[in-house]
Amino acid sequence: MPVESASSEPAPAERVAVESAPPWDAGEKAEEAAESGAPSEPNLAQPIIEAGVAKTDIVESDLAERASAEPDEAAETGTAGTETAEQSASEQAGSEDSSYLDHSRWLALFDSLGLGGLTRNLAAHCQCGHDDGHTLVLLLAPSQAAMRAEIHQQRIAKALQAQGVERQVVFEVQALDPALETPQQRDQRIAQQRHAEAIDTLNRDPNIQKLQQAFGATLLESSVKPASASR
Q1: Is 145's pLDDT higher than 70?
Q2: Per-residue pLDDT at 129 exceeds 80
Q3: Full strand arrangement of the beta sheet holding 135-140
Q4: 195 in Cβ contact with 226 (< 8 Å)
Q5: Alpha carbons 127 and 102: distance in angstroms, whole number
Q6: Is the CATH number 3.30.300.150 carried by domain 103-173?
Q7: How many helices (H) and strands (E) does the chain have?
Q8: Segments making up each domain of the chain, as ranges
Q9: Is the alpha carbon torsion for 162, 152, 106, 168 positive or negative?
């Protein structure tokens, strides 16, 4: 009698039961396998998601740092630009101011003008009134008004031009500022200082002191003249 070979395939009912097993059965099987020490299949989805979240956090942090740095850089650039513009404007204003004559520059230029005679005497009694870059107004004391003449204005203008200052010179008679020295007053003050220094030097000279002690000599201060003034 022929023997039928046993089939290893499960009955249709069993196959259906296995394939249609609900998801919670799979979870229970995973727990049973964990309890029995059997290795379980790794959950690959979770690391991928976590890595994605970490990468997103890094990108967002980098963007935030760049966004916060950009305003600072823009502010620094704007500040530097403002400082450069202010410096340029200040230098330009300083250059324009230096091209105008004021009273201190008038005093500094006076000796180099090379004026002589009545023109020098008249200019020496003037204060610098106003300079607009074209016309220089020289203030003249009323006591000197009789000396005013067109020829003196022309000579002063020519002397200024030789020093690189081209101006039309105009005299204006009015009371002068007592706080400002005219060239004549400045020269007089310097001469008095030099005279006093010369007298002091002679009084401390040992030879002069011997003559004074031996003969009762007296120094005539009015006869003393500084070496620079006697040349």
Answers
A1: yes
A2: yes
A3: 126-131, 135-140, 168-173
A4: yes
A5: 9
A6: yes
A7: 9, 3
A8: 45-98, 103-173, 183-230
A9: negative
